[in-house]
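Known limitations

Files may contain more than one protein. Parsers should not assume a single record per file. Below, a two-record file is shown to illustrate correct handling: read the sequence, read the token line, then continue until end of file.
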Amino acid sequence: MNEVQTYKTFGGLPWTPKFVEGIDSAKCLGCGRCVKLCVQQCLGLESFEDEEGTERHVATISDKSQCIGCQSCGKICVRHCYTFKEKSG
């Protein structure tokens, strides 16, 4: 049976982790705030050259297996680039 795992916060409130599922690279500014914030080191920055030849960056999920489901990356993102998913089972 695939049941969503629910835990409790320190204060006893219910909490369901939601793990990083994807990053919308079209919205991402490449500021790196999410990468610096992630204590699990799940995220990274990828460099690329845009149409004008300017070096740009976008956030990437470098190690999804390390995600603890805190959603801090999505909360700090001013462009709302992140999607999250509950882990069942």
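...continuing to the second record:
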Amino acid sequence: MKEQLFVLGITGGIGSGKSEVLDFFRRLPGTRICQADMIGKELQRKGAVAYDPIVEAFGTEILMENGEIDRGKLADIVFQDSVKLAVLNDIVHPLVLREVLEMIYQASQEGKRMFVLESAILLDVSYQDFCHEVWFVHTPVEVRMRRVMQQRGMSRERLLAVMSRQMSDLQYARRCNYTIDNSKDLQTLYANIRERLEELDLEDIFR
């Protein structure tokens, strides 16, 4: 009998190391990975389903010379205006959700054992409603800031603005089922992940 697909949500603030958790699962053949933000980016490309509604809502001034949406310019607009942010979310999030649910269905039909969904806003858009468990990836704030500024070239001012719009560590921890500590090295992180999977009786995904 085919095992039930386990849907695992991964979330956390910017720079917390969610991608490092995903790297662990990418090595497991029975697992399908989904990054909701990447889907959102693809849906906003020229010719994709979200492109025309976004351009209609925000005007052609958000476009680059090649006609693609300038995501940086669009982000500057919506981060300064909660109403415009809501407009963008109302366009993009339902389309992303539709894609995610289709991917979950396909993974189930293919006999995958686990579907790992990563999103910084997972709790904001209620993805947890179809997750069997949601993990909060926790990393100290000072480590997150140093990592993002070094790896992404983001200014301290911009980073603080982004972090101010995200949940606090306490809020994430309270709303998630489990907290994965990512404050040490990769070996420790992977050991933490394995321990939790064993607690959930999901050791079979390693085979």
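Parsers that stop after the first record will miss the second one. For reference, the second record is described as follows. Residues 42 and 126 are 21 Å apart (CA to CA).
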